């Protein structure tokens, strides 16, 4: 027994493969190692040790995955009439603005976190928007961004050398890094210290092959709606804020 080292082992932990002599030692092991005693179906098995039992286990595991995915696809929320009407309404309004809006199944995290709405009284989209700052390895999520707001105004609290809000920037850094706040706040100065003419706003072009990733360059002086016209959006827009001198391999369409 690998717990008490006194008695002959009779049992084996399916997860840790440790030998035990009694139920008492099993309970001591689970308590000390925080082990649930459930076999890890995805644990690595070398080719030399792979047997028919491992093959059968993998086959049953894939069957379980298939059943789980099928159950999620049949979930009542996915086929709820209210959900379908809302998504159809959003896609239809986007189509009227010359935007091809695509939505994902409800079990995708991007679908669940999307908070985009359309105000029929104002005839205006309020977008869920994600800003990515590659040179700081950070991102920030905005909610309820009106479609008539210019990209320059959206980015002012973050990168404008005069009007940037240190409180917003600090909250942005703390949210994503939690530690070394001052260091990453210093990194954000890469944008504020650079000429505004060097800042580029890019958006990934959807429906392209993996080895042909391209970006559209957006116009900061124009509204969010104007920049999204004629483009494909999956759930919500993701904007990459980059510097012209540090753009690296982000290829803009036409280059």
TrEMBL record:
Keywords: Isopeptide bond, Membrane, Metal-binding, Phosphoprotein, Ribosome biogenesis, Transmembrane, Transmembrane helix, Ubl conjugation, Zinc, Zinc-finger. The keyword Ubl conjugation applies. The keyword Zinc applies. One of its GO terms (molecular function) is zinc ion binding. InterPro entries: BCD1 (IPR051639), BCD1_alpha/beta (IPR057721), Znf_HIT (IPR007529). The chain crosses the membrane at residues 172-191. GO terms for cellular component: nucleus; pre-snoRNP complex. GO terms for biological process: box C/D snoRNP assembly; maturation of LSU-rRNA from tricistronic rRNA transcript (SSU-rRNA, 5.8S rRNA, LSU-rRNA); snoRNA localization. Residues 1-35 form the HIT-type domain. PROSITE patterns: ZF_HIT. Required for box C/D snoRNAs accumulation involved in snoRNA processing, snoRNA transport to the nucleolus and ribosome biogenesis. Interacts with FBL, SNU13, NOP58, NUFIP1, RUVBL1, RUVBL2 and TAF9. Interacts (via HIT-type zinc finger) with the RUVBL1/RUVBL2 complex in the presence of ADP. Belongs to the BCD1 family. This is Box C/D snoRNA protein 1.
